[in-house]
Amino acid sequence: MKLNILGCYSATPRTFTNPTSQVLEIKNHLFLIDCGEGTQVQLRKHKIKFNRIKHIFISHLHGDHFFGLVGLISTFRLLGREADLHIHAPKGLKEVIVLQMKLAQSWTNYNLYFHELTSTSSELIFEDEKVEVHTIPLDHRIYTNGFLFKEKIGERKLDMNAVLNEDIDVAYYRKLKQGADVPNKKGEIVKNQTVTLPAPQPKSYAFCSDTAYNEALVPIIKNATALYHESTFLEKHAKLAAPTKHSTAVQAATIAKLANVEQLILGHYSTRYDNLQDFKTEAQTIFNNVELAEDGKVFEF
Amino acid sequence: MKLNILGCYSATPRTFTNPTSQVLEIKNHLFLIDCGEGTQVQLRKHKIKFNRIKHIFISHLHGDHFFGLVGLISTFRLLGREADLHIHAPKGLKEVIVLQMKLAQSWTNYNLYFHELTSTSSELIFEDEKVEVHTIPLDHRIYTNGFLFKEKIGERKLDMNAVLNEDIDVAYYRKLKQGADVPNKKGEIVKNQTVTLPAPQPKSYAFCSDTAYNEALVPIIKNATALYHESTFLEKHAKLAAPTKHSTAVQAATIAKLANVEQLILGHYSTRYDNLQDFKTEAQTIFNNVELAEDGKVFEF
């Protein structure tokens, strides 16, 4: 899994910082998560083959999370895109996009599907053989979801010494990987667990922006490989967090600890701060494995 | 008059080029003309005091001319703007902006006025003591206006030698500048033209993007000090101009010549071209005083 941070600052764009957008590479998918103004330029700057994006996930309809979407949709048209594009977003976004297309008399020459989100419970919104995506209901000023991207459990690994020892025909290897008991060449049934090893632990990535401190998301993101959690404020502005429905670095770290994630990535910094290091320092008073998102940074897990 | 080019390329944003946006400084106004995606970042990069913008003029509702507007409106709110903001734009834009505000539950804390344009004839859309703004109906795929920014004719200048010679009381100087005949100290009426000089020729700037070759705009922009005219294509792609309702550099120069403008500024280049110099070379076969717009360039006239 590879996470490309295109933008990780809160609302006000500045000269050198970008509003929220990320690309997650997982099992041959390129998932775009949020799409603030200027995202298409960030995609180009970071040389992401953005025509490969087939699914876009929008957390909520504050401008710093979606104002770049209509431009990206238009650019796909200008570049002659033919592949379907799926947009998973709160109800209302379709109306915004369609109205602008109508006024410009510019319809896409590819299929554009809107999957409008309205549920306030976590739901499965995308699934294929290798990946699942679930919503993570967040607590913000308007209807907002985070997203949990999960690899599905893979195939068991063959313990080749044991397999050869048992003298199992190669034709059964596929079934062994799928967990079945199979016969050996003598016709005796071999218990699967005696000749295979468990599948590698599937990885998962949880994106949680924007949200107030909210322990309700802990069970949904439990044991995630990586958690991106917003940390708009430092402790000295902690009083602003509750009324604006944002979090502090310490609150993000508390969620990370309660959910027992492996790694916490902080982002969505208020543009009032110049020194990001303080976010890490404050979070590490609660949870050790903290990284700072920065525009252009890439995480692999 | 000072013209700041923020972006001057056609539709597809690339890493280092920006879609259409300009700021015209005229008689203490900062007028924003078109507002493609990323305009607010360009305003910051070029250190334009964008809180001073009170009037925004949008030519048409293709995304490369207005996708940056909703973000700018939001940023004004975040920065605590209090001054009124007037948006002069084709009918439909108000609906787009209001819908997005409604979804975000984010209303401006300043007055936002939409002046919706629907006329296909040139009309006066803004006027104060020193400036007029008129629409320039253009011929594009959707309803489109250029804009003519005109200084009003100023006051006559006193010919101080003649004024002192005629022994006119200082109390009458203001009337003289306004063109009136006034008495001298002996009570004799002095003809205005014998003691004043004509006001300086008022300057004007015509913005014409996007449009097919269209001689109907010649009388509207006649004798303009500067004309920005789109030149999407070079001669080798001249066949694309008519169906897409754009112009070539040669067509832009022909309009400049017919309208007898002082200076032609080319822009709205298709992003297929790397060498802008060819636009100038081709235009200069028709009209001599040609300049190339470039992102970040400033023109003074």
UniProtKB/TrEMBL annotation, chains A, B:
Zn(2+) 2 binds at D64, H65, D210, H268. PANTHER family: ZINC PHOSPHODIESTERASE ELAC PROTEIN 1 (PTHR46018). SUPFAM superfamilies: Metallo-hydrolase/oxidoreductase. Its cofactor is Zn(2+). Zinc phosphodiesterase, which displays some tRNA 3'-processing endonuclease activity. Probably involved in tRNA maturation, by removing a 3'-trailer from precursor tRNA. The active site is at D64 (proton acceptor). It comes from Mesoflavibacter zeaxanthinifaciens subsp. sabulilitoris. Pfam families: Anti-Pycsar_Apyc1. Belongs to the RNase Z family. Its EC number is 3.1.26.11. CDD domains: RNaseZ_ZiPD-like_MBL-fold. Binds 2 Zn(2+) ions. It is an enzyme of class 3 (hydrolase). Homodimer. GO terms for molecular function: 3'-tRNA processing endoribonuclease activity; zinc ion binding. This is Ribonuclease Z. The keyword Hydrolase applies. It catalyses: Endonucleolytic cleavage of RNA, removing extra 3' nucleotides from tRNA precursor, generating 3' termini of tRNAs. A 3'-hydroxy group is left at the tRNA terminus and a 5'-phosphoryl group is left at the trailer molecule.
